[in-house]
Amino acid sequence: MSTTQANTKIVNEDKPVKQTGSFVNENRKSLLFIAAAVLVLIAIYFIYLKAYAGPREVKAADQMHVAQEFWQQKEWDKAIKGDAGYPGFEKIISEYSNTKAANLAYYYIGIAYLNKGDYGKAIENLSNYRGDDYMVAAQALGGIGDAYVEQKKYDDAASYYSKAVDKASNNFLSPLYLKKLGLVYEATNDKKSASEAYNKIKNEYPTSTEAQNIDAYIGRVEAN
Question: Which PROSITE patterns match (predicted)?
Answer without folding.
Answer: TPR
